[in-house]
Amino acid sequence: MSKPHLSYKGYRALQKAFSMSKTDPALWAMMRELPNPDPILRKAGKSSLIYDEIARDAHVIGELRSLRSGMFAFNAELVPGGDDSASMKSYEIAKALMASSPAKNTQWMDIDWHNYIAILHGFAVTHLGKFEKSDNAWIPSTIEQWPAGRFAFNSDHELLVKTREHPEGEPINEDRWTCVRHMPEAKNPYGIALLSSCFWPWMFKHGGFKFFVQLCERFGVPFPVGKYRPGMQDKDIDELVEGLAKLLTDGIAVIPDDSSLDIIESKMSGEPVQLQLINLCNSEMSKALTSQTLATEQKAGARAASETHAKRAGENQRADRALVSGYRNQLLETIHKVNFDGGEPPKYVWRDKKEINLETVNVIRESAKMVPVSEDYVYNTLGIPKPQKGEELLEIKDDGQGIASAPKQDFSSDKQGADIPNFDEFDQATDAEIKKIFEFAKQANNLDELKQNILNEFPNISNSALAEVATKALELEVLQGMSEANQQEI
User: Fold this and answer.
1) Which of 404, 56, 422 is nearest to 205 (CA)?
2) What InterPro entries does its record include (predicted)?
3) Judging by beta carbons within 10 Å of its beta carbon (0-12, 13-18, 19+), is residue 347 exposed, middle or buried?
4) CB 5 within 8 A of CB 18
5) 97-152 pLDDT, tens per residue?
6) pTM of the prediction?
7) Interacting residues of 127 by C-beta distance below 8 A, sequence separation 6+
8) What are the boundaries of each domain within the chain?
9) Phi, psi at residue 145, to the nearest 5°?
10) Hey, is 312 helix, strand or coil?
11) Could you read off the pLDDT of 306-365 as tens digits, one per residue?
């Protein structure tokens, strides 16, 4: 099929290029450096330097430590990009690089955290030092973390580094830098900084602290009131005032014997407004940083609601870890491009260190009953390395209790009494019995009480049936709590 004929006018229309920034009526294209368009900082008249001060807040640093521990709660793995010789050689070079220190007095976890906190500052930049030849391969001598304040973006969203010769910023060599951004937009190449969302809560919180301290000084200690008789001289009144002042500071005072002293104690009730303001500001900062508040505010809540909040925080951490794998993969891609013409660079991926997701196991198992599922897909999904030829395999006998065992369980014992209700052919309790046990689960304060209530109702129930029906009742309670939590504003 021949290409369509284009007229000169049509050809010019296809060749015409439009630049979003250069056609902006705000005229930012007249400048090399595009100012950070963060609306919060612009209205407050602050720069991104305020982020460091916000990060030192006691509540914020507690949340950051939680984020850091969450990042390292997962295993990271380096996998080859392909099976060809170039890809495998690149993989070996990458393993040797990751086994060494990135820079003097620096560990890889320090560089990882530097790129992870792009969520706090909007973006993070890492510098690749001069390349040196080692074992017939060119690798960077150092991997350094640079502060975000040393960089800017131009109107074409290109990264600029600020130097002495070019304080407004100069273009970078992409082979010497990596850059990861958090939620960048067409009008904001700097990304969205979570610490920016913490600015006003942080500001009002510390303003509330000032008045809260004044409140404690004013009403936190008893208020002494001295009484003097009419016609008392000013000198004697001054001595009385001085004695009351010593009473506040020293705990003892000497006053004229013809004067009287009353102690008025504060009778405040309820939570002070200043404390409510501080707690509210802490709550808002928790929502911005971790998307949950139950763990930090220590408020009462159902177990299912707290689990839902924790799940949402975990999902955010999984997404944020992509920033860490992103900068490492940029680094590995650069090293591969410098040393090889073909092949694929290795990949840096995260593996969940926690227990296997039972929901994923069930999905794989049920899917394999309907459609063919490859073993490689199962290994990759579960994060389990495929055994190599000659490796000793682990053998575990199926005791009928594992997650891969048949789901059918005997609900009742073979020797059940006449007082045990009859169940259907699938060995499941009837709806009425499930509802009755569900009520037991809601009313029970602990598992022992739940077990005793079920045994009182069904004295001849078998242990396996007891475990099965208790699990179903607890699952129903958890699902109900999660439904209630999802309807709440987080």
Assistant:
1) 56
2) Portal_Mu
3) middle
4) no
5) 999 999 999 999 999 999 999 999 999 999 999 998 888 899 999 999 999 889 99
6) 0.61
7) 142, 143, 144, 145, 146, 176, 177
8) 1-219+275-354, 221-265, 408-490
9) -95, 130
10) helix
11) 565 666 666 777 788 888 999 999 999 999 999 998 899 999 988 765 555 677 888 888
